[in-house]
Inverse folding.
């Protein structure tokens, strides 16, 4: 549906480098990246309100790289919604229809349809300035939907609402996406939004896409430590490979699953692949260490236990295991993990 | 009295001195004017036409600046291009140079031997000592007030509003007239009123280009030169009164706008 090829844009503070990705009809692509990574600029380029320096944008097979924004039919929702302050909510929602010179009855019918859908009927005659953040966002969504866009771009849509409201609005967005089979590109720095809404993920680092693909594959196989770190992965350690099959950092030697060249390296040990044991039992795991429980973090449905073994190792265990092992701060404990569980970068 | 009052008292004293210096001569000229002479000035067959002439020419100059200055302000507020800072600096030149010098500069380009002057000659349009001359002089020295205010007005709202309108299907002009202009309207009008007011009070540049027909400033100058303080004062008082009414209106309009914004 949308294909971008090698989009480049140099600005004073950052640049976009060879941005290429594609979305199909109905896709929900979340573009993740730290603030200031050029995500907004990317959306503006797709919408046509900013010009790329090189590269092309294909929309349903048509090259729109040079098209004016009003010819693209791509909706863009900015972080601060950009409701027209001198127009009522009704006028805001109907703006695209007025521009297209739709008949009065059709405009009225469309406005009430989208206002009803987003439960903002009661706000139609108000001005945007005295609406709450959540109301503003609903109005902005209604205005964008009323133009019946072939692609909807969302720029950090939840950055300026509180977490309670955010949860509700995410639901709204998820339902709208399903109901209208919308194609959405949503940029954010919040991994949870991606987990909740995306079917595809692109990760931007220093103005370039470092990983792009279906959500599951990106989460399963982070392309590099930046991605892993960004996705909230724990247990990423810097060190060196020594004696070809050990990774060494802070006087700890970790057994690797194969033979490597000695070099500087980064490893990742998934927290759920680590086993805790009160005794030093013989197992098939090649890596066994003893350390102190440094911290216990109660998570939603499980515990994260931080164990100090020279490096601070994060381990996920269930409530049951937590209770049966009688884990408490400062206690001595053994950690075990297989060499094959260690990912090397 | 607490220690923390002291800075405020110092500020108040300084501000008070300034206020007196600014306001006293103005109030003084009005209250010390002989009402009879003031009335006579209003009835004077030279004074009233000169005031309407002043208002009229300043109005034309302002309309001209609206037509040419608003597009310039929009370009400067929205786009970056080569030579932009030069233009931004150049706009303010008329404010910083002596107005008589500005008049001389205008007169020079409008005279024979310069492209502009020759074109003017060919079209047989009279500039020297005409309303057109007065208007041009007022336009030249006062338009920065309108342009600067229009730039501020265009910068006072997020350009993303315009971008959003574009994505919603509005073309450039539709966006300009439906979004940009309404959102900057008050600022532009404020600039236009300031420019008009500045045009009314113009003397230096006008007198070089068009001593006749006499605008009020020129008339005051002439009365002072020929008949002295006593005869120029009522006319001056009248013009000051006019300007005061005018600027009170602007300030009131500006304040009511600010109140409106707070809701």
């Amino acid at each position: 549906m949308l294909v971008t090829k090698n989009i480049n844009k140099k600005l004073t503070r950052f640049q976009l480098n060879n941005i290429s990705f594609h979305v199909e009809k109905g896709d929900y692509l979340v573009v993740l990246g730290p603030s200031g990574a050029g995500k907004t600029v990317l959306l503006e380029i797709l919408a046509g309100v900013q010009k790329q320096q090189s590269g092309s944008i294909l929309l349903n097979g048509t090259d729109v790289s040079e098209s004016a924004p009003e010819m693209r039919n791509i909706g863009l929702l900015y972080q601060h919604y950009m409701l027209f302050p001198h127009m009522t909510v009704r006028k805001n929602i109907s703006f695209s229809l007025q521009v297209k010179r739709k008949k009065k009855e059709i405009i009225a019918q469309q406005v009430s349809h989208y206002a009803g859908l987003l439960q903002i009927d009661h706000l139609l005659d108000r001005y945007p300035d005295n609406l709450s953040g959540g109301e503003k966002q609903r109005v902005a969504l209604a205005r964008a939907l009323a133009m019946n866009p072939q692609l909807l771009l969302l720029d950090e849509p939840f950055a300026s609402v509180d977490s309670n409201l955010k949860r509700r609005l995410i639901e709204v967005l998820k339902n709208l996406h399903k109901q209208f089979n919308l194609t959405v590109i949503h940029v954010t720095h919040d991994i949870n939004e991606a987990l909740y809404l995306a079917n595809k993920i692109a990760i931007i680092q220093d103005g370039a896409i470092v990983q792009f693909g279906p959500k599951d594959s990106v989460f399963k196989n982070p392309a590099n430590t930046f991605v892993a770190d960004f996705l909230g992965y724990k247990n990423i350690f810097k060190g060196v490979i020594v004696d070809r099959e050990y990774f060494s950092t802070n006087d700890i030697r970790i057994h690797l699953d194969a033979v490597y060249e000695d070099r500087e390296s980064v490893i990742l040990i998934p927290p759920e692949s680590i086993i805790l044991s009160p005794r030093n039992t013989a197992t098939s795991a090649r890596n066994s260490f003893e350390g102190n429980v440094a911290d216990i973090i109660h998570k939603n449905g499980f515990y994260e236990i931080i164990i100090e073994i020279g490096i601070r190792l994060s381990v996920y265990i269930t409530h049951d295991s937590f209770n049966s092992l009688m884990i408490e701060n400062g206690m001595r404990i053994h950690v075990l993990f297989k060499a094959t569980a260690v990912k090397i970068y | 009295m607490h220690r923390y009052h002291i800075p405020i008292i110092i500020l108040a004293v300084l501000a008070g001195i300034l206020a007196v210096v600014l306001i006293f001569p103005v109030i003084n000229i009005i209250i010390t004017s002989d009402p009879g002479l003031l009335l006579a000035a209003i009835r004077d067959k030279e004074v009233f036409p000169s005031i309407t002439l002043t208002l009229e020419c300043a109005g034309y100059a302002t309309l001209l600046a609206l037509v040419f200055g608003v597009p310039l302000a929009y370009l400067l507020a929205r786009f970056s291009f080569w030579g932009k800072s030069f233009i931004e600096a150049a706009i303010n030149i008329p404010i910083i140079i002596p107005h008589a010098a500005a008049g001389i500069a205008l007169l020079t380009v409008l005279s024979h031997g310069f492209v502009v002057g020759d074109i003017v000659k060919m079209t047989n349009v009279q500039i020297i000592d005409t309303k057109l001359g007065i208007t041009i002089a007022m336009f030249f020295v006062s338009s920065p007030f309108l342009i600067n205010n229009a730039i501020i007005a265009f910068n006072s709202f997020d350009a993303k509003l315009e971008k959003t309108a574009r994505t919603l299907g509005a073309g450039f002009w539709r966006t300009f007239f439906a979004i940009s202009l309404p959102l900057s309207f008050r600022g532009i009008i404020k600039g236009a009123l300031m420019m008009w007011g500045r045009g009314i009070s113009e003397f230096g540049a006008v007198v070089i280009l068009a001593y006749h027909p006499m605008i009020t400033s020129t008339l005051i100058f002439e009365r002072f030169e020929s008949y002295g303080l006593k005869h120029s004062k009522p006319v001056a008082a009248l013009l000051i009164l006019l300007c005061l009414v005018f600027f009170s209106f602007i300030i009131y309009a500006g304040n009511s706008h600010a109140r409106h914004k707070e809701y």
